[in-house]
Amino acid sequence: MAHPYRLIPKRDRKPAGTSPGTLIAPDKACRTTMTVMTYSKETVAENVITTLDDIAALPREDNIVWINVCGLGNTDLIAGIGEIFSLHPLALEDVLNVHHRPKAEDYENDVFIVTRMVGLKHNRLDLEQVSIFLGNGFVISFQERPGDCLEPVRERIRKGRQRIRFMQADYLAYALLDAIIDGYFPVLEHYSDKLTSLENEVVANPDQKVVAATHEIKRDLQILRHGIWPLREALNKLSYDMPLVHDSTRPFFRDCHDHVIQIVDILETFHERAASLTDLYLSSLSNKMNEIMKVLTIIATIFIPLSFIAGLYGMNFNPAASPYNMPELSWYLGYPFALFLMLVVAVGFVLHFWRKGWIGTKNH
Known about the structure:
Blueprint: E1 33-39, E2 44-49, H1 52-56, E3 64-70, H2 75-84, H3 89-96, E4 103-106, E5 110-121, E6 124-135, E7 138-143, H4 151-158, H5 163-166, H6 169-182, H7 184-204, H8 208-228, H9 231-240, H10 250-313, H11 334-356
Parallel strand pairs: 3-7
Antiparallel strand pairs: 1-2, 1-3, 4-5, 5-6, 6-7
Helix pairs in contact: 6-10, 7-8, 7-10, 8-10, 9-10, 10-11
């Protein structure tokens, strides 16, 4: 199964010399659908919209408008949204560049934010680019495909007496970013459990499969790091430099910044754990080989003197030629004596090894 995300993606590129701001849908882009939430302190309305006329007719005066565009297949519709809200064409181009680096840019009429939403799909890492436009009284979010972690934000808007209903559009943008960042923590817990399981397995049963699983985790952690690391700079800009962000909202963006720092620290720790797993595997493999070599050495050490005794008694001497030519060959108990001698030597070596603690458990 192919990995759902690449650090250096293979994708169709625009022909050389194409005009900046040209909108080209990503490969295999989903069909475009739109939902809108319009709310104020007293009211909230939620609808599915299908045409640009529906967008133009939205009641924007004294309301906060959140348009969520799901799927990037309809470039004409996306371009039309850009015309209605005076979005910069270069920013719209970046919306369709679904492998863009997370960032925050201040344009004349709006703030453009790119981030990555992370999740697990069939226990595999799944990343998706989310682009957010923050303007005066509106927020427009673009995501690649259906399904997101933004439902808690929608619920907060639906409920009355919530902070989000009394704040400006910049707070809504913060809420979206906060929900996306919080989505990293369940994924980190998943990888923490996988690392713990691999650590236990590599000690109990060092196997080549553990190495392959470790490399896959290291790759996923690297992808997560590339998805979250640049967001620190973006949130720092939102906390201090953006005119569309009110002073009352800046502390919330700084809180998001702290969460990102925490995620980065966790990823660094996980990366170190994953790197140490390879060393632990090699160490466990070496210990296992040492145990095998120890057993073989003990067996060889015991049988070396036994082989010497058997070889000595196997020499072709004639006792009749001289009384010193192995007289025990003519002894009535010569054969039992040889076996007894071998047994005494073998038991003596075993007891010696046991007292040294090389085999069994040494008693003190």
